[in-house]
Specification:
463 residues; 6-stranded mixed sheet; disordered N terminus; 13 strands
Length: 463
Amino acid sequence: MAEGVLSQATVNGSEELPFRAWFGCSAGCSGELPLNQIIYNCPRCGALLDVYHDLSVLRRRSPAEWKQLFDDRYRRTTYPYGSAVWGKKEMVCPAVDNTNVVSMYEGGSNLFWAERFGKQIGLEDLWVKQCGNAHTGSFKDLGMTVLVSMVKQMIAEGIPIPAVACASTGDTSAALAAYCAAAGIPAIVILPRNRVSTAQLIQPMANGALTLSLDTDFDGCMRVVRELCTRENIYLANSMNSLRLEGQKTVSIEIVQQFDWEVPDVVIVPGGNLGNITAIGRGFLLMRDLGIIDRLPRLVCAQAERANPLYRSFLTGFTKYQPIRAKKTLASAIQIGNPVSIEKAIKVLQVFDSLVEQASEEELADAAALADRTGLFNCPHTGVALAVLLKLVARGQIHPRERVVVIATAHGLKFTDFKRRYHEGKLRGIASRYANRPIELPADYGKARDAILRALAERGGGI
């Protein structure tokens, strides 16, 4: 398996095809590096590595055959192909033996038809891809299953890896800790002190990860973990390791699959470290290159105004980029001023008809709350994407009949303190326009009845 080859002789009775993937320089230097090598940067120029696939082999199956294969595997019971990530193994990571796959049935998350919310804001065909409906409550599971499986494969091949480590604002650490716990591999997570929610902090602790809380921001934690992994042979699990992006790109394939292989018009993605927007873009590009789809959607990256280096670069036509010191934002997971995947993200966005937009703290909080009133339960990062959606609709940059997908990155239950403070009116500088506070009354039927009827009259019988 050192060459990253998967024999298909026993997979769904298909013919034997030598599917192959490798690391290559994202800046274009020649050469192939095996996926089981501990390396993150090009040895020639220092650029980050990407995972490349042998498209000539993938093209031996027709688009119709790929669609049928993926549909046959989707959410079924043959391990590991029921996972919406590993059901696309040939296009993700063929180097891992099935016996070394560490899967928690990830992917297959709900593509929520936000019909009521869409009508409120003037859209006929709005959907929210709820990637937070996952084992650890965020989209990070999609990439972590690939990375940890590859580590397990490498250990099985005799490569000494003492632990896997990440810097995190919460969700990455939760996914790493859970998957490493399932695999029996030590995990180390480094978090910025007082900058992650309690729910996010407790997840790696509960899964037995060695948890370090540093008095710095995410960028400071990232500097520490990069040095740790360089000096101590500990495996790096952040998105600068492109194996993570291979799992995350399946979001694109899954969205098209859930639409019966039709491409949406617009996809809006919250952006922090910019691995997810890169991965989602690559998923669409891979499908186009294989003939599975015949057009690309418009791709929108949504950033918090207080952590917006990509947005600032976009204003220059991506001709300039300058890291910033991110300010504290309610969207804590994307509070990143020096994103690792900035060059990859820009490279992908330049291929698409793309936009980058930002949202203020009040805009993201109100957007999350407004959508919640129609049955959703949004994290603040999804609130950023929803706020950007509202702006683009108001400007006419998204048309009423376009099919729009918003990527929800994490489950709202990870951010109950954010939601509680919003509805209590305790978020500093935010008016909480859509707050819904409990009505406190004595235990008296008459007073309860009067309050209910008065509230229903004020709301017009609805919410």
